[in-house]
Specification:
Elements: H1 5-23, H2 32-42, H3 49-60, H4 69-86, E1 96-97, E2 100-101, H5 103-106, H6 109-129, H7 135-149, H8 154-163, H9 171-196, H10 201-228, H11 231-234, H12 240-243, H13 249-253, H14 255-271, H15 281-292
Antiparallel strand pairs: 1-2
Helix pairs in contact: 1-3, 1-4, 2-6, 3-4, 3-9, 4-6, 4-9, 7-9, 8-9, 9-10, 10-14, 10-15, 14-15
Length: 295
Amino acid sequence: MLRSLSSYMAERRELVEDALERFLPEPGGRYSRLTDAMRYSVFSGGKRLRPILAIAAFEIVGGEGDAMLVPACATELIHTYSLIHDDLPAMDDDDLRRGRPTCHREFDDALAILAGDALLTLAFEIVTQEDVLAPERAAAIVRELAGANGYRGMLGGQAADIAMEGELPDIGAIEYIHGKKTGAPLAAAVRVGTIAAGAKSIDMERLTKYGEQIGLAFQIADDLLDETGTAEEMGKAVGKDRGRGKMTYPAVVGAESAMIRAQELVDDAIRSLDAYGERAWALTEIARFIVNRRN
């Protein structure tokens, strides 16, 4: 049977969009400016890669039903919060995100901070309040998301990224930053899908390795796109990493070697799925998509 990754992602994206619409507050009401800012950022487009990874992981280990939509949407809410805060003047100071004004440009700095905070807390609210997850699985998902996106994960990587701006490029420092800032949240997206399915420990080990490898590959590809992509393709300004002296793979090893390293990581990720045979096709194709995308 011929399978299409684009069709697979489109179908799962539609499921995620419908669920996000259900979980987010409706427009208007007492907190209208805050909810408008939340909805503006969540529904600004995007590939929905993290929730699709959660769904694909859920499916590969035999998960059934729609329990995966709660943790899947939680990963997207947390991702959107991180983008809102990352774009702020105190961080990357970006004016565009996905071809539209960033949240703080469309609204203001204060409301952008609050919208990000609201999305982060909403993520944990839906995981713990929806009835589709057993309490122990909901608690495990909360721990996973909090750890991967807190000071030991994404936030720690972001802090290191800021602290090391202008320092001499160092491959160890780059892998630390990328592993925390991007790798940990992407691996968590995969892991929450397996947790929601009640997967065995061996499945967790295999899929954790997959998630960590594609997370690092994703950030290397992002570094390359900042060097070689256009603003039209990326939907945001490009070339800023080099201008700010950020730690990136191309800055240390060059674009060609960086692409080779990303491909090696993807190959390792795919090999970690060998035990699943044909069931691994979606995660395999997503891994390949990550290094070949243009935005």
